[in-house]
Amino acid sequence: MKGRNLSGEAKESWRISFSHVEKKIITSHGNKKTCCEGKANKCCRKRCLMLLKSLIEGLKQRFPKELDPLRSYHRKTAFLHMLSIRFDDSMWALQQLPACFLLLLGALEAHTRAGVLPHFFAPNYNLFSGTVFPRKAMSFLLHALEGRPAPAEASRSRLTTLQLCERDI
């Protein structure tokens, strides 16, 4: 992650950026390369990503301290992994938006539960490694994604995962 918890020397070193390639994958999605070119070919990929973005932003606004390590890159990486697994256009039909979003959310939950979210292009680098994503924050995120209060937060009123998503559907 750029500039986070790095020594002065490390902050001045070069880093590889995959943002252009990631953007190309997201915008040129589909195995037939005709997805989203016409009204008949619309899919729900980008809407799923936007719903996950809204959910994560809502959680971060509600719990900024607890979810400080969570970045948009975690969301994007989980989405890229989902695109590589669900590559066929028929798996992302627009009318399947709710099911597709729940699969994406479930994938992020699974990565969080395992504490492993491999970087999409450098899979040996774990974006959920304890050195960059503390276990306490990981546990809090898992509870939030599952829509249940974290043990320390049980008495605090909070929005559930589905309530945060309902605002954007």
Automatic annotation (TrEMBL):
Signal peptide: none annotated. Residues 44-141 form the Mab-21-like HhH/H2TH-like domain. GO terms for biological process: activation of innate immune response; cellular response to exogenous dsRNA; DNA damage response; negative regulation of double-strand break repair via homologous recombination; paracrine signaling; positive regulation of defense response to virus by host; positive regulation of type I interferon production. It holds the Pfam family Mab-21_C. Transmembrane segments: none annotated. One of its GO terms (molecular function) is 2',3'-cyclic GMP-AMP synthase activity. One of its GO terms (cellular component) is nucleus. This is Mab-21-like HhH/H2TH-like domain-containing protein. It comes from Champsocephalus esox (pike icefish).
